[in-house]
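Figure 6 in text form: structure in, sequence out.
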């Protein structure tokens, strides 16, 4: 009989030495998603909140799930917190030359690390459902897999990465310069607080905690096939900001309203994200657009009722 395991991360306040804005609704978001998982029969790990949301603890929980799940099982991963993007010339993994990132308590986690080091460890035909309520989250839990026919270009050390990214950003056309301080994005959020962090924040985080970032870069695995079926729901597109709130993020609040304690009547994930997006756009004047990715995915997965294990 299929089984489900879930991991939930909510970070209102990363390491204070990072100097980023404290958010309000992320811990509540993680707890709410944990409750949904429990209600639907998942073996839900206790949420990783603020100081508990370290790379070591989150990575260990994901890899433990990967070792425990077999074909037909499902893994649910949810993240609520700061998100950002950074220009990259280090691999062929990003068609838009951007790495989408999320901020754990102690480090910046890039989409390529999730894809290459974590999702790749799940067995064939396991379903992975990722949900991110953060800025620039359209592909934050996804990453386009690099072309295995091309050479893998290793990422430089943190010091060189900062210099390289600074030069790259300076040379990019304005429509790509998202990491100024505050972030310059295509669509600004008409809300009091968003869940982004800036280029200046990122430089400071890398300087505060270089060891963990250098180690991640050194451990980044080469391109390889993804055996599991991956489906992600993002709070907004990669060029947009996601709104925070006193109780929940704008996206998570809409998700909870649509889910309605399990009374959601829609048949599948397409209908789920469509109704969530409708609610979000009413609150943000169409400046935050939730998305389902990837565009090409196992349609049997997409057609399932959300949070279904069997």
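Output sequence:
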């Amino acid at each position: 009989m299929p089984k489900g395991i879930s991991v939930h991360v909510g970070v209102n306040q990363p390491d204070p030495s990072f100097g980023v804005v404290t958010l309000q609704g992320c811990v509540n978001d993680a707890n709410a998603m944990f409750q949904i998982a429990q209600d639907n029969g998942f073996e839900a790990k206790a949420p990783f909140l603020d100081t508990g949301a370290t790379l070591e603890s989150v990575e260990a929980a994901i890899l433990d799930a990967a070792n425990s799940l077999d074909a037909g099982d499902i893994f649910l991963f949810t993240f609520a917190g700061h998100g950002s993007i950074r220009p990259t010339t280090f691999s062929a993994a990003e068609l838009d030359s951007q790495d989408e990132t999320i901020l754990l308590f102690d480090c910046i986690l890039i989409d390529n690390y999730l894809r290459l080091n974590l999702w790749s460890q799940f067995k064939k035909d396991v379903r992975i459902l990722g949900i991110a309520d953060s800025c620039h989250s359209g592909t934050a839990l996804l990453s386009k897999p690099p072309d295995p026919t091309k050479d893998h270009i290793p990422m430089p050390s943190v010091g060189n990465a900062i210099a390289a990214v600074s030069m790259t950003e300076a040379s990019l056309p304005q429509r790509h310069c998202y990491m100024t301080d505050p972030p310059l994005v295509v669509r600004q959020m008409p809300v009091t607080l968003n869940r982004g962090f800036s280029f200046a924040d990122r430089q400071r985080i890398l300087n505060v905690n270089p060891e963990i970032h250098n180690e991640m870069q050194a451990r980044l695995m080469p391109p390889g096939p993804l055996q599991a079926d991956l489906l992600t729901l993002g709070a907004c597109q990669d060029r947009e900001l996601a709104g925070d709130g006193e109780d929940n993020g704008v996206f998570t609040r809409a998700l909870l309203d649509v889910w309605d304690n399990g009374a959601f009547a829609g048949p599948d994930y397409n209908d789920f994200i469509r109704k969530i997006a409708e609610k979000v756009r009413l609150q943000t004047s169409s400046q935050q657009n939730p998305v389902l990715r990837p565009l090409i995915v196992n349609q049997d997965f997409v057609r399932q009722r959300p949070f279904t294990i069997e």
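Caption detail: The first strand starts at residue 4 and ends at 10.
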